[in-house]
Amino acid sequence: MDFDLIITNGLLATASDIAPLDVAIKAGKISLLAPHGVLDTSKAAKVIDAEGAYVTPGGIDTHVHLEEPPLFGGKGRSSDTFETGTRSAICGGTTTIVAFAPQAKYMPSLLEVLKDCHSRAAGNCYADYSFHMLVGSPNPTALSEFPQLVQEGITSLKIYMTYEALQLRDDQILDVLYTSRAHGITTMIHAENGDVLNWMTRKLEERQLFAPVYHATSRPQIVETEATNRAIALAELMDAPILIVHVSSPSAAKHIRESQTRGLPVYAETCPQYLFLTRADMAKTGDHGFEGAKCVCSPPPRDGVEDHEGIWLGLRNGTFTVLSSDHCPFMYEDKEKGKKSILSPEHPVGRFAGIPNGIPGIETRLPLTMSANKLPMTKFVEVTATNAAKLYGLYPRKGAVLPGVSDADLVIWYPEGRIKEGVTNGMLHHNVDYTPFEGREVTNWPRYTVLRGEVVWDRDGDGLVGRKGYGEFVRRGKSSLPGPRGEEEFDVSKF
Ligand code: URP
Ligand code: ZN
Ligand code: ZN
């Protein structure tokens, strides 16, 4: 057989083009692209007829929390393991994830943390995977390990301007930016002003305002906007590339866009929760007033349609480089390590400040965004796959369909008009007892997911057909998007 798989009759959509092309796959790689009817399908071990539907590069989700300890408020522990999280990923069309390797403040070494994450992921993943370091303590040991991280294929890290367990001071942020820049690492920044939101929280609690919706009240847009502006200022001082993660607020997006217009290497990410959820979802009064906890994440979903429109606009006009899930799953009912771990006799309907921050969304990211029909198809591919690959050093092995070069990671969608249904938690494959997107209508879903030439999801057939352990660690190179503007080392005396 000349080919392992040929996908016929598809409309191949990449970040740059849409064309009616058949895709031939051999040994896990894209082998040939040809106009419909040219390839001899009798020479393929397997043929899939896409029936005129879109065929896109496999999704790349570069913001995923799996098996993480309590870091994001209260006693919450991620409910998804590498096994269940990556299982859910492929069933929603995501073939590569980048999860966090979290260093808590008391841990000196990043390499030790990385080793531990490798041992938990190896042999357990359904999707290909990598790690960003999550730097809780930029101590001298940790900073000295940055060159080794790059050698190990880890070329990005995340830092926080909030959360008691993780918040860095501005001088610590400068230490990270300085060292990252020197070694070609991209710094991801969680931009919320922790001191301001803590103060707001104290004031709300003094007034006995504890319900989940006050999570949003404690974090008005200015909390995010100020921190975003400060992060950009620190990065500009250092001439270091940054990515502002999970941007929720159009006013923060304005600062980002302005810095990009000035030519700074400032990138940004948003997530489906900032396109589909609002403060009203946190104000839901079911379950004795606690139901809104299902949507508590940081930054919080904003007020309404105008905010959503601002974020969609930022996706369309290129302010946002990537659309990730920020999948940070906690069980709702679990009273030990889930959302309900904050319930107590003293606070029978909870206390927003102790609700673990984060929501699941790894499987719904692509179908919800595709179904919204608000992005041109090439832009959809760009922000859900191609740009992620470029930004985080995976391109063109991932995020592209270049013959002889790219892994055969693909999603085959349904022809238009075939699907119209509400999302239910029962149809998802994560290890979470709810989805914040319950009932939302989708008009498409990955019909097949293909990872390195193997069909791993066959929705109309046996569903999940991938294997635990098939997912491989992917060693990443440096970002191929523009980095520092100057070549020379940072020189403090030049100021
Ligand atoms: O609420 C969120 N976003 N939880 C995940 C942790 C983080 O900051 O990304
Ligand atoms: Zn964050
Ligand atoms: Zn996150």
From TrEMBL:
| Annotated signal sequence range | none
Output the superkingdom of the source species: Eukaryota
Annotated keywords: Phosphoprotein
Q: Which InterPro entries match?
A: Amidohydro-rel, Hydantoinase/dihydroPyrase, Metal-dep_hydrolase_composite, Metal_Hydrolase, Metallo-dep_Hydrolases_sf
In the record, N6-carboxylysine modifications are located at K158
- What PTM annotation applies here? Carbamylation allows a single lysine to coordinate two divalent metal cations.
Give the family from UniProt. Belongs to the metallo-dependent hydrolases superfamily. Hydantoinase/dihydropyrimidinase family.
**Does the entry feature the keyword Phosphoprotein, yes or no?**
yes
According to the UniProt entry, which residue ranges have a biased composition of type Basic and acidic residues?
A: 485-495
Q: Would you tell me the protein name for this molecule?
A: Dihydropyrimidinase
Tell me the ranges covered by the Amidohydrolase-related domain, including all copies. 54-456
Cite the NCBIfam families for this sequence. Answer: D-hydantoinase (TIGR02033)
Q: Identify the stretch(es) annotated as Disordered.
A: 476-495
Q: Which CDD domains match?
A: D-HYD
For molecular function, the Gene Ontology terms on record are: hydrolase activity, acting on carbon-nitrogen (but not peptide) bonds
Q: Does the keyword Phosphoprotein apply?
A: yes
Name one cellular component (GO) term: cytoplasm
Q: Which organism is it from?
A: Cyphellophora europaea (strain CBS 101466)
